[in-house]
Amino acid sequence: MEDLFNLNNKEIKDLLEVKVKQFNAVDFIQDDPILLPHQFKRKQDIEIIGFIVALIAWGKRKMIINNGEKLIKLMNHAPFEYILDYEKGMLPEKAFTHRTFNTDDLDFVFRSLKRCYQENDSLEAWFQLKDGEKGVKQRIINFRNHFLATPHEKRSEKHIANPGKGSAAKRINMFLRWMVRKDENGVDFGIWKDIQMNELFLPLDVHTGNVARKLGLITRKQDDWKALEELIENLRKMDDNDPCKYDFALFGLGVSGEL
After folding, report:
1. 81 phi-psi bin (left φ>0, alpha ψ -120 to 50, beta other)
2. CB atoms within 10 A of CB 18
3. Rounded distance, CA 251 to CA 206, Å?
4. Cα 158–Cα 159–Cα 164 angle in degrees, nearest 5
5. Which of 128, 162, 216, 240 gets the highest tally of CB atoms within 10 A of its CB?
6. What is the pLDDT of residues 89-134, one digit of tens each?
7. What is the SS3 assignment for 185?
8. pTM of the complete model
9. Is residue 56 within 8 Å of residue 67, measured between CB atoms?
10. Cα–Cα dist 186/193, whole Å
């Protein structure tokens, strides 16, 4: 590959467009945690599995997928029914662990999801903006406030990112990409209609951050919300309608070792 440090803006855009086409494809699903919600057809099932899998999406992808499969089995392959019937104490003491995410955290997530579906048809309702509010950052903050209104242990709060305190909210942004983005390639679901694709921010992780810096799309050293704002501003110059599609390119270039 040519020297990426000397590419101009058009060449960077052309490179990313090529890589979007390469990685935004059905083949991508097979090795990515998004394959787990793809096992379901009903909107609520997709939301529930998508959200919980996104919450545990740190570490090796194979481990994430394996533990996601355990979650689906735990929920009797019927996530929506399981959540509606869930009561505190239903989980065995050591029913689930993924790194620092444990059974107590999962119990809290199940109870909060039940609260949401008792009040709303979709998890999207908790991401709604109030009058005068705007932006995906505020949507995530609103969602977090709703979610944490369910009684919980303090330790569980770390699993629900807070962009208001600078977090890049990688896992929630990834979940939003899954739910909101829609194109003909069938990787993302596009089942949410109130949030627009041009609102989305990328799930900023080590791979996307490193590649974006090499391409000059981020100058900030930390992978925080300010870095994410800088990145999305540059990507919107390439595609203002769907800047989040470049997540496939940046992540793919990084994880494949091409850059």
Report:
1. alpha
2. 11
3. 9
4. 65
5. 162
6. 899 888 888 888 899 999 999 999 999 999 999 999 999 999 999 9
7. coil
8. 0.94
9. yes
10. 16
Structure tokens at 224: 């925080």
Residue with tokens 């627009």: 196
Q: Are 176 and 200 in contact (CB under 8 A)?
A: yes
Burial profile 46-78: b = 16 or more Cβ within 10 angstroms, e = fewer: bbbbbbbbbbbbeeeeeebbebbeebbebbeee
The residue type of 131 is D
- Copy the structure tokens of residue 184: 């003909």
Distance CA 206, CA 255 (A): 9
Q: How far apart are CA 250 and CA 215, in angstroms?
A: 10
pLDDT at position 89 is 85
The pair of structure tokens assigned to 195 is 């949030």
Check residue 199 and report its DSSP letter.
G
Sort 100 into a burial class: Cβ within 10 Å, 0-12 / 13-18 / 19+: exposed
117: its two tokens:
């579906």
Smallest Cα–Cα separation from 125: which of 113, 101, 143? 143
Residue 135 DSSP one-character state? S
The whole-angstrom separation of Cα 187 and Cα 196 is: 17
* 195-227 confidence digits (pLDDT tens): 999 999 999 988 899 999 999 999 999 999 999
Report the b/e string of 88-99 with b at 16+ CB within 10 A.
eeebeeeebebe
